Amino acid sequence: MIERLFRFGVTGVLATLVHFLTLILLVEIGVVSPVWATVAGSAVGALVNYVLNRRYTFDSRKPHRDAGPKFLTVAVGTGLLNAMLVYIGTDLLGLYYLLVQCIATLIVFLANFLLNSAWTFREESTT
């Protein structure tokens, strides 16, 4: 479990970098608000996350037709949680968007690990 959490962390760092780069780019060039930019970042990061988690973290042999919809469900749920946290932090509390995103990332990281470990990539026992 500890090794898997470490691998999930490494994968998460890479996906988070992609998420943050997307977020910062969209906000700083003035394309969209931080809330919509984090939604876009979450989507791009989720794609990176799925590919790396399936192979590197969980070494899953589950077919994409089984793991994909589950991962998508978790990604949408945690993406909504992320967007809600960024909205509360930036729009309601007036905090700096990158500070809020860092806090949201920690919360979403834990939720993603627990849900993907227990549901998305869990191998069914053969006994």
Order of helices and strands: HHHH
Strand percentage: under 5%
Count of separate structural domains: 1
**What Rg, in angstroms, do the CA atoms define?**
15 Å
Calculate the terminal CA-CA distance, rounded to whole Å.
Answer: 21 Å
- List low-confidence stretches: none
Counting H and I runs of at least 4 residues, what is the number of helices? 4
Helix content: over 70%
- Summing up helix and strand content along with how strands pair, one would put the structural category as mainly alpha
The shape is elongated
Overall mean confidence score, pLDDT: 91
Biggest β-sheet, characterized?
A: none
Number of E strands: 0
Give a written overview of the molecule:
The chain has one domain (2-120). The two termini are 21 Å apart. The chain has 127 residues and is an all-alpha fold. 82% of the residues lie in helices and 0% in strands.
